[in-house]
Amino acid sequence: MLRLIAKRLAGMAAIIFALTAVIFLLQKISPLDPVHAMLGGNASKAAIAQQRHALGLDRPILSQFWHYLGGLLHGDFGTSYRTRRPVGSDLGFFVPATLELAFYGLLFAIVLAVLLAFGTTLNWPGARLLRVVLLAGASTPAFLLAIGAIIIFYQHLGWLPATGRTDLTNAPDGPTGLLTLDGLLNGRLDVTVDAFKHLILPGLAVAAGPAVSIGRVLRSSLIGEMQSGYAKTARAKGLTEGRVLRGHVLRNSLGPALSMTGLQVGLMFAGVLVIEEIFSWPGIGQYTAQSIPVADFPAIAGVTLLLGVGYVVINTIVDILQAIADPRINI
Amino acid sequence: MRDDPVTTPVALIEDLAVTFRRGGRDIHALRGVSLDIRPAEILGLVGESGSGKSVLGMSLLGLLPGTPQTRGRVLVHGEDMLVAPPAVRRRLRHEHLGAVFQDPMTSLNPTMRVGAQVAEAADGSGAEAERLLKAVGIPEAGRRMSAYPHELSGGLRQRVMIAMAIAGKPSLVIADEPTTALDVTVQAQVLALIRSLRDEIGCSFLLITHDLGVAAQVADRVAVMYAGRLAECGPTDAVLQAAAHPYSLGLMTSRLTLESPRDTRLATLPGEVPSPADPPPGCPFEPRCALSTEACTETLPDAVEIAPDHLSACILPISEVRSHSVESRSVPHPPEPESGKHLPLLDESTVVVRRVEKTYRVGKGLAKGRLRALREVDLTVAAGESVAIVGESGSGKSTLLRIIGGLERADLGDVTHGRVQMVFQDCGASLTPWLTVGELIGERLPRAARKEEVERALERVGLPAEVAGAKAGQLSGGQRQRVALARATVIPPEILLCDEPTSALDVSLAAGVINLIAGLRRDLHMAVVFVTHDLSVARIVADRIAVMYLGRIVEQGPAEDVVGSPRHPYTKALVAAIPDFGVKPIPLEGEPASPLNPPTGCAFHPRCPIALPVCSDADLDPRLIGIGSGAARMVACIHPEVA
After folding, report:
1. Quick check: B633 pLDDT over 70?
2. Per the CB < 8 Å rule, is B91 touching A230?
3. Which residues of A touch B101 (CB under 8 A)?
4. Which ipTM value was assigned to this complex?
């Protein structure tokens, strides 16, 4: 286990280095000039040169690169050209909202995936309908689901809110920044409930695609494992099909589904950025969307690195979970 | 008689027919079988693949896959397992039935501790699970409760299966090929266990097996099945010594034993089992039966009593069946062109393996280890000679073959060899499924001569030329192994390497393949290196036998000598463990150690009945040394009685 974590930390360093290098290169070949974006089209040549010097853009590219990497080591992501604040504190402000949405998205995805897989594996009348849902879900883009959900559940039925993280104006802003958790920590159950209501629609919109992918993988391994020798043994003991599925087959089917979950988390981050736009969710999606047109390199790099690290962390957790599920795997 | 509790059968099968629907065709797996299983008896259900023996077992468990059409009744404790509601069948399985399946690795849940798996069958009681594990002879049962299946050896895993099967004192245990996946020394242990459990618990066993020898070992009665029908059923001694059905006789004569004549063609049954999709209207064995008459093709013969408690489904008079079987027993090989049996000179060697070592790195993390597959192995094969390498799983026999074949590289030592070709055990998997047989055989040939050469190769292996257009999936197992042989010999190699080519085949087909390999060897002047776990096969195919144990050759010499008068204690144990009629096997204790961590000194010493204290000495390195006259016979044992 420690070996795995050490290995992954080394991998993470390599990924951060590679990502930074790619972003640096992209910035250099991009026609967008951050100085122009900051000062506007009418700035004087002298002002531009001065700003360029202030940002360190007049130094050789390698020196800029090393400077930036050195900053990263001290937790310094640089200063956003757009907000003029350190990228680190910007991220600190936007990340919890995204993290909360992604967490609930993943949670919904896993719950839905298991329900879909079980529902279509056991023999019961609804299995066929669920298979249609699986197929439809797989072929519908997330933004379409999101818009459809807003129209039905917000506009027509009025059951659920569709914008922002909370309707409350006096919501606590600490200690974690995750509203559902902060509500509990501050003894404000109303905050938790309200935040959860706000999370349902965007969370489900984020979860739909991954839920279908994970569910299909889980379903096919469940079906395969239900034919296995040990399932036959379990039936020969006189167990019911439900107990064969829950007690024996499920744990043996988790491996591929866990791998798929790891992959889907990466895709889910991309999905979150779109969904945040639709639901006016104040997360890094909006932050990124506003940073890209003005070539706010430090902000874009900060978000990218964060996602890269998050991806490695999630996949390390997946590997550990796989080893827990299957005692034959040694990590 | 019927009401007597002693003779009321624990299970009664009446006119059972099971038909599956596969790919738009009806597969007649069972076609009217009646059978009773009596209290506290071991009934051996013998048949080749496709005979319906496993379907019969699953019918008894009420676990037939899918929704087949059924006829007849399968009574267990007064309930018909064919039509009882699922909850009733579950209760019967739980309270009155137990099951042991073939492969103990896949039949146990790999992610659940064995204690929990046994407890699940014993109504959740951990104490009862531990008692059961002790009862089936698992050493340190308490500690083993928390082991996962992959941490146990094959034999222990099968003991765990048996512990689950006998949980709750069932009246009947269905054991479907319980020893087929085990090494021969372990098989003898498991059979002995089944017998002693029957004596202690008093439950009946239905022992499903393809091996007449296994049935002979433990069964009180034997039922022989063929193509979904019962061919013969009766007391074990009567069926094995005075068989009444031509199929049982054919099975018996094509079976290889340590006494089978070596210099004759093995008796084989012509043809193959009829397709279960389209069974003939008459006796299913008629197309392969030497005694068939017009009447045999017309009606399906029912099993009739030919002696007390002895049934046979053949309409011919029994005297005629028996007299024929004697005269057809063996046909000699055509005379050999030159005196081929003497041991060839060393300078004609076509394979020389000298001090070869092979170590695999396996696992990672804490389980990382070095698997020592071969430890300083020497082997020489002369031109035209046939050598069998015999050993249990983990002995390194397949690794040695792969190194000779150039599929693996030795870490140390020298290997020289001529042109080689290989034939594998799983002939289905070793033929590319989307190529036709003609393309498979002809791919190494120049285009111009291809068609002609392919036809000649097919003719040599006894297949019609039309097979060239078929794909491997359309052929039967026996035909596929013939195609594999045609592919290997279309350009005759100097050495043909065979890795267990007959172990996946039924008895009657295996004999045919062995005859074919012998014939090809003679016609094409090839040397043959034949890897097998079965000493009786090795004795037939080989001039010389090399016995391997944990990466070493422990004994080698002329085939008849090695089998007839084994010297090394391990070879002796192997010979003694072969199940046969009228032989009481002496099971060897323990199981082969892991090649990850071979015992010090002589690797066999923990299981050796004559081990001396010095045998475990880390400095001891028993080498093959010649015994008797000449260098032909060699043994790696330091015991004074052996060397």
Report:
1. yes
2. no
3. 229, 232-233
4. 0.81
